[in-house]
Amino acid sequence: MDPTFLCADVEGTLAPRVADLGGLGLSRDDIRRIIPLSPNSFRNRFLRRNFEFWLAELGSFDKMLQVLRMNSGLLSIDLDKVAKPNLAFLRQCGLTASGIASTNVYNTRLFTMNPELLREGVERVEELGVERGAPMFGRTLALIALTSKEVVVRRIQLLRKYGFSQDDVPVIVRKAPLVLGMSDQKIERNLDFLIKDVGLEVPYIVRRPVLIMYSVEQRLLPRHCLLKALRQKASLKGEFDYYVTAAMSEKTFLQKYVLPYKDHVPDLVDGYASKCAGKTTARVTSL
C-alpha cells in the first residue's frame, strides 16, 4: 500500500472520497477493491467525477477494475485536459474506450497519455501505411504510441537487415503489428530460424508475418524437426505448406502428424513433447 495513502487525513480526505463513491451506489466491498488499485486517487477531490465518467465509458464495474489494474491513473487524470480530448480524438479514428479496453487493457494507457503524443502516434501509424478504420489500427496505434520512436525505427531497420524492403514493412504491420513489439533478440532468433533453418524466402514471410511471432522453441522448432524426421523415414509423403503446419492448433497438429505415426517411428511422441517443453535449444536436429 502507498505510504502516503496510509498517512492521509481520514476525516478530511479519505472519508469524503468513500462517501462520494458510496453516493454512486458502490458498496464498502466495492470500494475496498478499488483502493489498492488506485490509492492516490483517494486524495483527489475529483474522484467521484472521474469514476462516474469512466464507468459510463467502460460499461461495467468489473471492466473498471480490470483497467485500473493496468492504468491506475485513470481516476486521477485531468478529464478536461487529457482524457476527454484523447477519447474524442480516438473516436475520430473509429475507436471507443470500451472497444480498446476489450481488446487489451494495456492499451487503455492511450486514454491518459499526453494528447500531443497520441496525435503523433496516429501520424506515425499512418506513415506505416495503416489507415484509420483498418482492422488492426487500434492495436497498431497502442503499440506505436506507447513505444518510443527510436525503438520502432530500430526494429524496422532490423527487418531491413534480413532483406525486407521498405514496402514490405507496411504489409507486415497491417497484418501483424505486434511484430514491432517483439524484442530485438526474439525477432532475430525467429527470422534466423525461418530463413536459415527452414529456408523460407522473404516474400513468403511478408504474406504470413504471424510466423515471426510464433515461439521457436515451443512451436516452430518441434514441428519442423518432426516433419523433417517423418520425411527422412519416408513416413510422410506429398507436399505441405509450411505456414499451414505452423499455424494449426496443437490438437490438430497432433492428430495429423504425430498420433498416426507413433507406432511407425519409435519415441516420436516423447521426442516431440520434449521439444515442445523447450528441453532442447539447439538448432534443427532430428527427433
UniProtKB/TrEMBL annotation:
One of its GO terms (biological process) is DNA-templated transcription termination. Keywords: Transcription, Transcription regulation, Transcription termination, Transit peptide. GO terms for molecular function: nucleic acid binding. It holds the Pfam family mTERF. Gene3D superfamilies: Transcription termination factor 3, mitochondrial. It comes from the Eukaryota. PANTHER family: CGI-12 PROTEIN-RELATED, OS06G0224500 PROTEIN. Belongs to the mTERF family. This is Uncharacterized protein. It comes from Arundo donax (Giant reed). The lineage of its organism: Eukaryota, Viridiplantae, Streptophyta, Embryophyta, Tracheophyta.
